[in-house]
Amino acid sequence: MNFDTFVLAAATASLDDEPAAREHADAIEFRMDLAADPLPQLHEYDGELPVIATNRAEWEGGEASEAGRLDALAEAAQLSSVEAIDVELQTLETPEGVALAENARAADVSIIASVHDFDRTPSSADLRKLLRRATDHGDIGKLAVTAQKPRDVLDLLGATQTLSATGSTVATMAMGEAGRHSRAVAPLYGSRIGYAPVDPADATAPGQYDLATLRRLVGELGSDARSTV
Ligand SMILES: O=C1C[C@@](O)(C(=O)O)C[C@@H](O)[C@@H]1O
């Protein structure tokens, strides 16, 4: 998967959502850690949208325990429908994470190196450092933080703009109510992935818009490749 232009991912625990996501999404983010029978679902998948496979660790806000977590992601990366895998930066800084990324890349699968902070927004300097570390390990570096106040969103957008202006490929979003609007505007500052559930009841993070709404907002603001075609 290439992140030269903005990718809107429909985040879901069920690949049965794919037909409903097709109209608005560019990809499906399959949250293996939230899914029942994730590998059988992936093997049976015959949808049109490419899949980003995520198997989020418990220690990074997901539900996957460590046993078999990376093996499942490695198996997912061998499937032709899977075009990217999402791996926590902390994992990518271990030998197991390095091996997983190497094998995935050999199968032409992109690496999203991700960092989450479910409590707060780090300082501007730390946001930039985290994004740089993530882009060192991934084809795209992703940073999802929690905004408690408007200033937090400005800091995140500033880091996004700084990194993307120097040629780094990044994706950023501020979680929580105060950060919600960041999901619509971050693409204007260079963020290349947005996440949204098909149905708002199935949100995979605090403050997400539903898919149709995020597609419309990003399109209306003009940072969406789809709005120019
Ligand atoms: O890392 C992310 C970003 C996210 O947490 C969000 O805030 O939209 C949603 C997750 O499903 C995805 O893996």
From TrEMBL:
One of its GO terms (molecular function) is 3-dehydroquinate dehydratase activity. It comes from the Archaea. SUPFAM superfamilies: Aldolase. Its EC number is 4.2.1.10. It is an enzyme of class 4 (lyase). Pathway: Metabolic intermediate biosynthesis; chorismate biosynthesis; chorismate from D-erythrose 4-phosphate and phosphoenolpyruvate: step 3/7. Involved in the third step of the chorismate pathway, which leads to the biosynthesis of aromatic amino acids. Catalyzes the cis-dehydration of 3-dehydroquinate (DHQ) and introduces the first double bond of the aromatic ring to yield 3-dehydroshikimate. Belongs to the type-I 3-dehydroquinase family. Homodimer. This is 3-dehydroquinate dehydratase. It comes from Natranaeroarchaeum sulfidigenes.
